[in-house]
Amino acid sequence: MTDYGHELRFGTFLTPQNADPQTPVALAVLTEEVGLDLVTFQDHPYQPSFLDTWTLLSWVAARTERVHLSGNVLNVPMRPPAVLARAAASLDLLSGGRVELGLGAGAFWDAIEAMGTPRLTPGQAVDALDEAIDVIRALWDADGRGALRVGGEHHRLAGAKRGPAPAHDIGIWVGAYKPRMLRLVGRKADGWLPSLGYLQPGDLARGNATVDEAATAAGRDPREIRRLLNVNGRFSPTPGDGLDGPPEQWVDALVRYALEDGIGTFVLGTDDPRTLQTFAEQVVPAVRDQVDAARATSGTVTGAVRPAAALAKRVDGIAYDTVPSDVRAVEPGDRGYGALRSTYMRRGAPGVVLLPRTTPQVVDALGWARQQRGPLAVRSGGHGISGRSTNDGGVLLDVAALDEVMVVDEASRRVRLGAGATWGKVAATLAPHGWAISSGDHGGVGVGGLATTGGIGLLGRSFGLTVDHVVAAEVVTADGTVHVVDAEHEPELLWGLRGAGGNLGVVTWVEVEAREYPDVVFATMTFDASDPAALLDRWGRTVQDAPRQLTSFLHVQAGGGGRPPMAQAMTVWADDDTTAAVAALEELLGAGPVLDQRATLTPYAGVVGPVARHHDGGAPPVTRSGLLPAMTDVAAADLARLLASGETMLVQLRATGGAGNDVAPDATAYAHRHQQFSVTAFAGRSARTGLDDAWDRLAHPHMDGLYLSFETDPRPERLLDAFPPLTLDRLRALKRTYDPDHVFDQNFPIDPRG
User: Of 218, 232, 633, 687, whose Cβ has the fewest other Cβ atoms within 10 Å?
Assistant: First the structure.
């Protein structure tokens, strides 16, 4: 007896006849309505009385909402696997993850050859299917790097682009009967899909043994492979042979197949709606109940089985099997891991990614994470330049699902922002109200990181820093306690969260008071940067002397590789007075030779718009950062020398003065309230020694403080640049109260012991 413990599923196997093309569609819809799990169609592309199966699957996907869909089985000789891979992934994305892929090596070769497909011997057909599976899986691996090259006798890829990745792990099920095909199932497939009518007594047991032996030899757990069975029969009041008889006879037979032959999916071949309904209403529930009862008695382990290849990627010291049941976890080897492992700038390799959806789940996730080996990273959006919201070999707690944006009080423009929301989503949500919150320069930046670090944004000289308008927050501290803090409740903790939040807990939401900005003027300017010192000096002096409505960021690129040195300014005039905006922008155009300029009147959401979040950063970023009190000709000249040194490929300057400097230095843990610019240099190579030397010699003497999110230098003296002594003393006191064990030690760690 063999029971692989697979969750039972039930479906239909329908004929794609085209005499009345809506009939198979109606049967598919009925399959969903009666509560079955799967709809499959025969695939005989050479049959003129049939609809094309893939076209039919697509049509049915649009007519249904829940059932999974598959060919049963698709004729691979007539469906090139590279195209099939993209078609399956595309339909899976469109249907919300409801496509499976039943594949066959081809059987009716006279008809196949008549359609123009070269005839293959049985052995060649198996080899071709083997290669086809490799091609399909390779193209689905959108997280892999480089163009695809697969060299096979029958199917080849010669530099194909990867993707798209499907919405879920599409199962590849193979229709197989003979030993060589069964061994292929064991080595590479996710399921074995025979038809009962083609089997002799004992064939299921013999087939399972062959599949299991091949799986074990390939280093797989045989339970990874789902066993499916196409069945057909007739309901009648009196017992007959096989599945011809009353529903009770069907139940007895299917229970035996499940418990003795390991069948986890039964697919009913019928085009009769009454048979379909009887199966769903009288057979399926009884089979589920009896199998569940038998498994409970025998202690059969049920549920999904992690592939052996994925188990091999687990990190020692992480107790994967004890992750709280209410928290989704993604491990190396999981399909979604590639989209979660990295940040915008850094390619990480965490041992596990936790994805809580509620504050209680954050509590559970954090409690579990504290017991594991390795570093703990916390992420909201993952766009931070420092790359600290991932790690290698540790736990990553990603709060992206906590992304609600809601208006709390219309009169005061108070808005609650989930820490996992992006500022693009925030801007789009507030735009209909004519409100905005200054928030960086990219819509993909997460709320949690920016709203607890500072918040240098394109409305900054008018609005101030984001943290200046944070009036309340919810945070889970290291011991799992949930604190809701504001001016009256734990105000000192709120003070610390506004500038050093990553050191004090996992913030789940903040409340921010927005400002009225019905429309703003957004301008981009491209300059020739052949004389970077003059450009920096003129641009900087113009910005720091401009009205507060003007905030500008400047990105200066060193030339090289045939590219001339260039600079681009992004500038916002923070109201809809276009006459005043034009006058201020014309002053800014005098900073250097202009290559291109554009300006538009737009809601702030047109400046920081929603951005799809998918990060696959490379080597850990190498940057240096500082805060410049004022632009001077000497500072401009030294920044130009830094660019010319070859140690940096890009220098970015962000205006920070204006309203942000109206706030007292001790009002928030971000204490830098006299500087006019944030300056960041990006290394042109992976080693940081050259940039550190050049920065310390040329730029650092001009700086006073730094902005956490843009700095990657790990030396302890950077902590003193980030936090003045009195600020650091207060933060250490907070750490002793809320994080005495120094759990949050990855983002400019403030050791509570001093």
Answer: 687
Nearest-CA neighbor of 262 among 233, 305, 219, 232? 305
Q: What is the dihedral of CA 210, 211, 212, 216, to 10 degrees?
A: 100
Neighbours of 163 (CB within 10 A): 15
From the number of C-beta atoms within 10 Å of its C-beta (0-12, 13-18, 19+), residue 427 rates as buried
Give me the pLDDT at residue 143, please: 73
SS (H, E, C) 449-482: HHHHHCCCCCCHHHHCCHHHHEEEEEEECCCCCE
Tokens of 243: 């599945």
Distance in angstroms (rounded) separating the CA atoms of residues 295 and 281 = 22
Token output for 503: 């050191």
> Rounded distance, CA 382 to CA 419, Å?
12
DSSP letters, 576-622, are S-HHHHHHHHHHHHTTS-EEEEEEEEE-GGGTS---------BSPP-
Give the distance between the most distant pair of CA atoms in the chain.
100
Q: Do you know the residue count of the chain?
A: 754
Distance between CA 155 and CA 151 in Å, rounded?
A: 7
How far apart, in whole angstroms, are the C-alpha atoms of residue 340 and residue 616?
Answer: 8
pLDDT at position 336 is 85
Q: Which two tokens stand for residue 33?
A: 């309505």
CA distances from 660 to 464, 667, 705 (A): 4, 11, 15
Query: In 3D, which of 340, 337, 297, 290 has the Cα closest to residue 314?
Result: 337
User: What is d(CA 595, CA 726) in angstroms, rounded to the nearest whole number?
Assistant: 47
- Both tokens assigned to 589: 């155009």
How distant is the alpha carbon of residue 589 from its chain centre? 40
- Which of these, 442, 463, 447, 497, lies nearest to 612 by C-alpha position? 442
CB-CB contact of 400 with 417 (8 Å) = no
Q: What is the pLDDT of residue 611?
A: 81
pLDDT of residue 386: 87
Q: Report pTM.
A: 0.86
Low-confidence ranges of the chain (pLDDT < 70): 145
Based on C-alpha coordinates, what's the Rg of the chain?
Answer: 31
Residue holding tokens 């063999």?
Answer: 2
C-alpha 54/C-alpha 693 separation (Å) is 61
What is the rounded distance in angstroms from the CA atom of residue 277 to the CA atom of residue 431? Answer: 50
C-alpha 238, offset from chain centre: 55
Tell whether omega for the bond before 164 is within 30 degrees of 0, i.e. cis. Answer: yes
What pLDDT does 341 receive?
Answer: 94
d(CA 722, CA 708) in angstroms, rounded, equals: 7
What does the pLDDT read at residue 303? 83
Contact 601, 578 (CB under 8 A): yes
Cβ neighbours, 10 Å, residue 488: 8
Please state at what angle helix 532-545 crosses helix 578-589, rounded to 10 degrees.
150
- Domains with residue ranges and CATH for the chain: 9-298 (3.20.20.30), 308-398 (3.30.43.10), 406-516+732-738 (3.30.465.10), 520-602+622-723 (3.40.462.20)
Locate the DSSP E strands across 246-339: 265-269, 328-330
